[in-house]
């Protein structure tokens, strides 16, 4: 061990009480201490905070932490102070007097870490005049990107930080960033040369399962009945659903509660507390539940509805099994949800991105290859081994020789010059006569209508399987256009065989059928 290593371990032990660093923590801390910019992608619970809190202790000046979660700032600051690390926060909820007393404490070098909401950045100028800023940490950095799932306009102002303090190391941290978002973060914060630290998103102890949503309430009751005393969360899309489901569970004799942002805050705190202490082990919640809750023995997560995107889904299932023990996750998939989510996305003001993310979520839900590998590849990890802990691995679908279908599909993408998204390619291959086809004279091209014999839904599913198996790709930044790749060429020109499986019937799960 070098002297620096010894110092880092001692600081970890003295201030945080831990014996060992988690994966990547030491590398990140060392790099920050060397003055380098860093981009940190680590799943929730991975231990991101220590990556900037520990250097803050060792560095000469102040560490500025930009965080959007005003509600959690106080807890974080309290926890730091309890560990003997002087910290404070500034946000709009405080008075001018409180804020100027903080300036005084910064000036006298009493404070090591200062948490700042992006809305309070005006404070930055005052700070930079009275102290040396040694490190800037941007937490929840995905909020800067409109490619992310939680875009906050106030975050876009942060680009000035690197310009103002070009020699101060900046570390951007997030739990949720696909490849496109990740690069967007680095560009916008002006740290494109930052060291990339991407820890594995694989949570092998979580089983993954997707079920058709038919009779989901009965399915949920059966599920919890066979798991007495286990604690879990059911995520629902609407407040009403959380209440209805909690009622049904209570009527069936389970200790359950509904939780959503419409409840008074004292009731919400009470519910959280009862959950943490296992008094109410089952919570039916909207996504408002779970942020900042550190409960290690959540044994299962159920999604009553299809989530809006993979980032949110991954974060939510990640709340199970923090203790490392086996935990279960189930997602109920129905087309009624898809239609509703599409409507939400269309009214969101960020329509294109949201729809693209929903499309990826749908592909996950309809996957016919290992679900974990799909999740991992979404977060930029390559995994080739099957996981053995998802429903697809455990009950592999039966495959047939789909080479001819694949050849037709990939030729379609080729004829449309890799410019069109999946639904247009399907329309084209099926010889549809709608405006999207006729306006561009696509009906005059070769391969128009070659897959007439396959239903729209089935063909769409086959194309999803092809993308999930890597035979073609979706260009996220180009309107979701389907693109060919090396593997496509193998199929088209070198006779590579492709296996497909018959689509699972999710439509039966609803009374409603999808609109095309
Ligand atoms: P994140 O911000 O990535 O969600 P946190 O920084 O809140 O995660 O850390 C999650 C939990 O793991 C916290 O309880 C933290 O104290 C703990 N933790 C972090 N680093 C270590 C470590 N090296 N050893 C043991 N526990 C750790
Ligand atoms: Zn698997």
From TrEMBL:
Catalyzed chemical reaction(s): Couples ATP hydrolysis with the unwinding of duplex DNA by translocating in the 3'-5' direction
Swiss-Prot/TrEMBL keywords: ATP-binding, DNA damage, DNA recombination, DNA repair, DNA-binding, Helicase, Hydrolase, Isomerase, Metal-binding, Nucleotide-binding, Zinc
Helicase ATP-binding domain boundaries: 29-195
The protein's required cofactors: Zn(2+); Mg(2+)
EC numbers on record: 5.6.2.4
Molecular function in Gene Ontology: DNA helicase activity; hydrolase activity
Limits of the Helicase C-terminal domain: 216-363
Family: Belongs to the helicase family. RecQ subfamily.
Protein name (Swiss-Prot/TrEMBL): DNA helicase RecQ
């Amino acid at each position: 061990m070098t002297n620096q290593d010894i110092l880092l371990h001692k600081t970890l032990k003295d201030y945080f009480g831990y014996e060992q660093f988690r994966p990547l923590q030491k590398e990140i801390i060392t790099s920050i201490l060397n003055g380098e910019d860093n981009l940190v992608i680590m799943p929730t619970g991975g231990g991101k905070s220590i990556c900037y809190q520990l250097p803050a202790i060792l560095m000469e000046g102040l560490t500025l932490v930009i965080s959007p979660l005003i509600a959690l700032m106080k807890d974080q600051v309290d926890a730091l102070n309890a560990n003997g690390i002087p910290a404070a926060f500034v946000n709009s909820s405080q008075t001018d007097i409180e804020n100027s007393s903080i300036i005084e404490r910064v000036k006298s070098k009493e404070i090591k870490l200062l948490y700042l909401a992006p809305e309070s950045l005006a404070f930055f100028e005052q700070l930079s005049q009275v102290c040396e800023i040694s490190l800037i940490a941007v937490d929840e950095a995905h909020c800067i990107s409109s490619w992310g799932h939680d875009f906050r306009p106030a975050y876009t102002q942060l680009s000035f930080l690197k310009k103002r303090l070009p020699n101060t190391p900046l570390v951007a941290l997030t739990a949720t960033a696909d490849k496109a978002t990740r690069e967007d973060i680095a560009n916008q914060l002006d740290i494109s040369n930052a060291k990339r630290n991407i820890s594995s998103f694989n949570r092998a102890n979580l089983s993954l399962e997707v079920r058709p949503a038919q009779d989901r309430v009965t399915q949920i009751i059966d599920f919890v009945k066979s798991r007495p005393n286990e604690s879990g969360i059911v995520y629902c899309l609407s407040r009403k659903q959380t209440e209805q489901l909690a009622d049904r569970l209570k009527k069936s004799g389970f200790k359950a509660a509904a939780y959503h942002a419409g409840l008074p805050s004292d009731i919400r705190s009470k519910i959280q507390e009862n959950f943490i202490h296992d008094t109410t082990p089952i919570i039916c919640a909207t996504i408002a539940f779970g942020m900042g809750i550190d409960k290690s023995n959540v044994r299962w997560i159920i999604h009553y509805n299809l989530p809006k995107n993979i980032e949110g889904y991954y974060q939510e299932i990640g709340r199970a099994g923090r203790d490392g023990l086996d935990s279960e996750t189930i997602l109920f998939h129905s087309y009624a949800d898809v239609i509703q989510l599409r409507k939400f996305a269309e009214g969101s003001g960020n329509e294109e991105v949201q729809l693209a993310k929903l499309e990826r979520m749908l592909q996950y839900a309809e996957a016919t290859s290992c679900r974990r590998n799909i999740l991992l590849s979404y977060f930029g990890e390559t995994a080739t081994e099957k996981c053995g802990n998802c429903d697809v691995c455990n009950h592999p679908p039966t495959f047939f020789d789909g080479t001819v279908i694949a050849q037709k599909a990939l030729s379609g993408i080729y004829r449309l010059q890799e410019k069109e998204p999946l639904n247009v390619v399907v329309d084209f291959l099926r010889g549809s006569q709608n405006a999207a086809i006729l306006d561009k004279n696509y009906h005059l091209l070769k391969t128009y209508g070659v897959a007439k014999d396959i239903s729209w839904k089935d063909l769409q599913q086959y194309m999803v399987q092809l993308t999930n198996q890597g035979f073609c790709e979706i260009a996220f930044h180009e309107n979701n256009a389907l693109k060919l790749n090396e593997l496509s060429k193998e199929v088209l020109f070198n006779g590579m065989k492709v296996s497909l499986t018959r689509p699972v019937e999710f439509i039966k799960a609803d009374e409603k059928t999808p609109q095309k």
